[in-house]
From TrEMBL:
Membrane topology: Multi-pass membrane protein
Family: Belongs to the OXA1/ALB3/YidC family.
One GO molecular-function entry: membrane insertase activity
Species in which this protein is naturally found: Treponema peruense
Pfam families named among the record's database cross-references: 60KD_IMP
Any one GO cellular component localisation term in the record: plasma membrane
TM region positions: 14-33, 40-62, 163-183, 195-219, 239-258, 270-286, 306-327, 347-372, 379-399, 419-441, 448-465
Protein name per Swiss-Prot or TrEMBL: YidC/Oxa1 family membrane protein insertase
Domain Membrane insertase YidC/Oxa/ALB C-terminal: 44-230
UniProt entry tagged with the keyword Membrane: yes
Length: 950
């Protein structure tokens, strides 16, 4: 028989994701929640908390398993006399037939003997999950706990000359044996042998394991021992457990009240509330028991309806988390999720995410449902119907503006998670109240069978949408895969190819389009690195510059083509598709230079044909023009040259972990999302600071000198788009270079920019990538000077838009409106033969001046080749600036293909003129149109929603 090794591995991965990964996720969450929110406990305290959490979650399963084992023991004992007699009296087939006949008489099957091993079978996935997480947990390294010096290494409590005896595994085994002795006091010999053999196996497996893992297992064994003693010798164990919890939480409350008064108000409230819940929980459970007794008849009459409501609610949550939300995330940019590490197709992440969701929402809850009594089944049905409807509302109705999200689930701007509307705060609770009333009404009317088709419909609808996403993802992946350059032709396997050819004898115009570069950072960067003032010799910095929108889709056309391509002007041409106008803007300068006989290079033009893959067909017909979007393998080349980043080659494994976590974040009630987000860590213990797009963009600037030669035989025009400044990332000193898992302000930083400290360090990260970009470009400028190609090159460094959380520090008293920074791009220009230290010019500018600045003093055409209109830089009266609307997703060109106009809203938009450092010149659009009815009429013609239309 021939086995497909790959298929077997895929099945193994799927089963692991379904069975083990949900338990591992709980362990990871509890451990890192303790480290992050209860740091005074240390790593040892976190392990104790993990042990308690896992044991109490698994306790009901163990109790049921114990009951089943007791039944098996009783059955074996009851039949022992006659089974022994049959085995002694008969042999072979006759013995087999007699035993089977006797078992049938007693309604027993030999398979039931496996029931005695049920607790061991339950223990296996918990052991594997704990072993996988704690044995590889970097947080434990060099962390001490009482007599344990390093929780990340095996203990060395007894040392000899050449070696050390690991004491913890021996202690673990002794406790295991004592617990087994108490548990198996009345068990048959076979069961006792099983327990002691298992203890020996654990000793063998864990002897050389990190002491943190062994300590965890010792705690589990102590818990098991206490459980066995209480169950054996205490009549009402529930009272003992409740009393213990009451005492623990009472001490915790008193500790924070009297010994830690400086603790934050929110943290204290959580502790006090938890203490209150623990205290009243027994009374709630008692009340529930009485409530269930009244509704027991209804449950017994409708068991099938309850089960179907439970299972399809669970399945609905799994589909929502593992299929719909995950596929929606991947479908926003399938190429970003492709070719990561050892995983090429992005649909692999969907498989693992759905498997995890099946385990979390279906498998383990179903195991509990099937093993427990009717009272628990009734409660679980309510909980899962509540949960199924609630997560649906949370993720679709009470959703927030997540903005741009990296493949690792990192939000560009996490501030919306903290700013909640009244609906987002009160809505989820209202949904639960209304839903409870509806279910009770259906119960009383004996129409519970309505719930099942409702949940089934939800499952089918979101499965259908997910399938549509899957088809779209697969289509884009196949297209990208067909264009992928084979490995042997990549930069990683040969010399970095030349992308930009400049002329030493002719003229060169080079436009560096740094996506989302922020102008306000520039003076601080030059203050931190004063040597840049000479490196950027001849440059003029224009700080008083605005853009027309905060999204590339709306802002970039004006940068490429001038004032005829602002959002308002594009909307006035209402009979033409947006993608046609966007293509036209992209071609304005390349066509002028191409027709003048210049050599043209366009690197990564933005959104040609509004395609999600490289569609350069609009450039066909332009002579002397080279268009490309990437240098294949350049990221791998950088990682190969910097081995300390080798872990980034495992980006696919990190994406598999993060995708379901971002889906879970969307399913949570809004008030809990920011806590769970945890500064993009999701309580995973690691901050994924480097994305695939960041490494690619950084490499394109890092190797810019290697990608440039001076062999052009004619004048050259080059425009290079780069996304480094669009990928906010914490970097290390010196030089703001990529590094793993950084947090906070880097050591050695001399930056004087007034950071606003958030838990996601949004403005810090933006500053650092802006500084890194200018430092990488500085190296290239020196390269041009070394090769005598600086004076004959005009260089423009410009961006399409800025970002929030930056401009509030522009001037004293400037209010902290986070939207100002969206419209403040970078603009720096060096003309031919310009000399001297970099200068600052406060002339009012926009990034739509780029075409005119590019063509200035070249003697080429001074008008748009498509419309015939002359380029203008008239700024009389100022401009209207429009924010991207996240609800419409108008920042996404792929959904604009059939549109002729942008949606332009007043919300978060401004009219700006003259000095942008004077807040009086930032007039909200609604107020501007109120006082300028003429402009309001013109704006209405441009499609602006001047009256708040939807």
């Amino acid at each position: 028989m021939i086995f497909n090794k790959g298929l077997i591995m895929q099945i193994g991965d799927f089963l692991y994701s379904v069975i083990i990964l949900p338990i591992e996720a709980v362990i990871e969450f509890v451990f890192n929640f303790s480290i992050s929110k209860m740091s005074m406990l240390g790593a040892g305290g976190a392990i104790i908390l993990v042990s308690l959490t896992v044991n109490f979650l698994a306790l009901p399963l163990y109790n049921i398993a114990d009951e089943i084992q007791l039944k098996e023991r009783a059955a074996q004992k009851r039949m022992e006399k006659w089974t022994s007699h049959i085995k002694k009296t008969f042999k072979g087939d006759e013995q087999y037939m007699m035993l089977n006949a006797y078992y049938r008489i007693n309604n027993y099957s030999p398979v039931y003997a496996l029931r005695s091993s049920l607790s061991i079978l339950i223990e296996i996935p918990f052991f594997i999950a704990a072993y996988n997480y704690l044995s590889k947990c970097d947080v434990l390294l060099n962390q001490s706990f009482f007599i344990l010096e390093n929780l990340g290494k095996p203990d060395t409590l007894i040392k000899t000359e050449n070696t050390a005896i690991h004491v913890l595994p021996i202690i673990m085994t002794v406790i295991n044996c004592v617990s087994g002795f108490v548990y198996s006091k009345d068990a048959p010999p076979r069961e006792k042998v099983q327990i002691y053999v298992l203890a020996a196996i654990f000793l063998f497996l864990l002897y050389d394991s990190p002491s943190g893992l062994v300590f965890y297992w010792i705690l589990n064994n102590l818990f098991s021992l206490a459980k066995n003693i209480i169950q054996k010798y205490v009549k009402k164990p529930g009272i003992i457990v409740a009393a213990c919890f009451d005492i623990i939480f009472a001490f915790a409350s008193l500790y924070f009240m009297f010994f830690k008064p400086e603790t934050g108000f929110k943290k204290k409230c959580v502790v006090y509330l938890a203490s209150l819940v623990v205290f009243v929980l027994p009374f709630i459970l008692n009340s529930y028991s009485k409530f269930f007794e009244k509704r027991k008849i209804i449950f017994n009459e409708n068991k099938k309806s309850y089960f179907l409501a439970f299972i399809f609610s669970a399945l609905g949550m799994a589909i929502l988390c593992g299929l719909y939300l995950t596929s929606s995330m991947i479908s926003t940019s399938p190429v970003e999720f492709s070719f990561l590490g050892n995983t090429d197709p992005p649909l692999s992440y969907l498989t693992s995410s759905f498997a995890f969701a099946l385990g979390l929402f279906v498998l383990w809850p179903l195991a509990v449902y099937l093993m427990f009594n009717d009272k628990v089944k009734y409660a679980l049905t309510y909980i899962f119907v509540w949960g199924g409807v609630s997560v649906l509302f949370n993720s679709l109705v009470f959703r927030q503006n997540y903005g741009t999200v990296s493949i690792f689930g990192e939000l560009d701007n996490s501030s919306p998670l903290k700013h909640l509307t009244v609906i987002q705060l009160a809505g989820p609770a209202l949904v639960i109240v209304i839903l409870t009333a509806i279910i009770l009404l259906l119960e009383n009317k004996k129409k519970l069978n309505y719930i099942f088709p409702a949940m089934l419909s939800v499952c089918l609808v979101y499965t259908g949408i997910s399938c549509k996403n899957i088809v779209s993802i697969n289509s884009v992946y196949k297209e990208a895969s067909a264009k992928k350059i084979p490995a042997e032709n990549t930069a990683d396997n040969k010399q970095i190819p030349t992308v930009y050819s400049l002329s030493k004898s002719g003229k060169n115009v080079f436009v560096l389009f740094l996506d989302r570069a922020i102008g306000i950072f520039t003076p601080y960067i030059f203050e931190e690195f004063p040597e840049l003032k000479n490196t950027y010799s001849g440059f003029t910095f224009y700080p008083n510059t605005i853009s027309f929108s905060d999204s590339t889709n709306k802002a970039a056309p004006a940068l490429y083509g001038g004032y005829e391509y602002t959002p308002e002007q594009m909307n006035l041409r209402k009979d033409e598709l947006l993608l046609e106008k966007n293509n036209e803007a992209l071609l304005v300068l390349p066509r002028i230079f191409s027709e003048a006989g210049w050599q043209v290079t366009d690197f990564d033009p933005q959104n040609p044909n509004y395609s999600s893959t490289d569609d350069f067909s609009p450039f066909e017909g332009l002579h002397n023009t080279k268009v490309l979007s990437h240098v294949s393998g350049i990221s791998e080349k950088y990682i190969s040259d910097h081995p300390e980043l080798s872990e980034f080659s495992n980006a696919d494994l990190r994406v598999k972990k993060t995708l379901p976590k971002f889906a879970l974040l969307q399913m949570l009630v809004p008030i809990a999302r920011n806590t769970y987000y945890n500064g993009a860590k999701y309580f995973s213990g690691e901050y994924i600071s480097l994305s695939k797009d960041f490494i690619k963009s950084f490499s394109e600037l890092y190797y810019l000198r290697q990608m440039t030669d001076f062999k052009a035989e004619r004048n050259t025009y080059t425009i290079m788009h780069n996304m480094l400044t669009h990928n906010p990332t914490l970097l290390k000193q010196p030089g703001y270079m990529p590094s793993k898992n950084l947090s906070g302000i880097p050591a050695g930083s001399k930056c004087t920019y007034p950071y606003s400290i958030h838990n996601d360090y949004s403005d810090i990260k933006h500053y650092e990538v802006n500084a890194s970009a200018l430092l990488r470009i500085a190296d290239w400028l020196n390269f041009l000077k070394e090769n005598h190609c600086y004076n004959n090159t005009k260089i423009i460094i410009v961006s399409d838009h800025g970002f929030r959380d930056t401009i509030q520090y522009l001037a004293p008293g400037f209010s902290r409106n986070t939207d100002y920074g969206c419209y403040q791009p970078l603009l720096m220009v060096k003309d031919f033969n310009a000399e001297g230290e970099i200068k600052t010019d406060n002339t009012f500018m926009t990034n739509a001046d780029t075409p005119e600045l590019t063509l200035k003093n070249l003697g080429l055409a001074d008008s748009n080749p498509f419309t015939g209109k002359k380029f203008s830089s008239d700024k009389t009266g100022g401009f209207n600036l429009y924010n991207a609307n996240m609800t419409d997703r108008d920042y996404d060109p792929s959904i604009q293909k059939k549109n002729t106009k942008f949606n332009l809203y007043l919300e978060r938009g401004f009219h700006v003129q003259d000095n942008i450092f004077n807040q009086k010149n930032w007039i909200p659009l609604d107020k501007w149109f109120e006082s300028n009815p003429g402009d309001k009429e013109r704006a209405a013609l441009c499609g602006v929603k001047v009256n708040g239309e939807k």
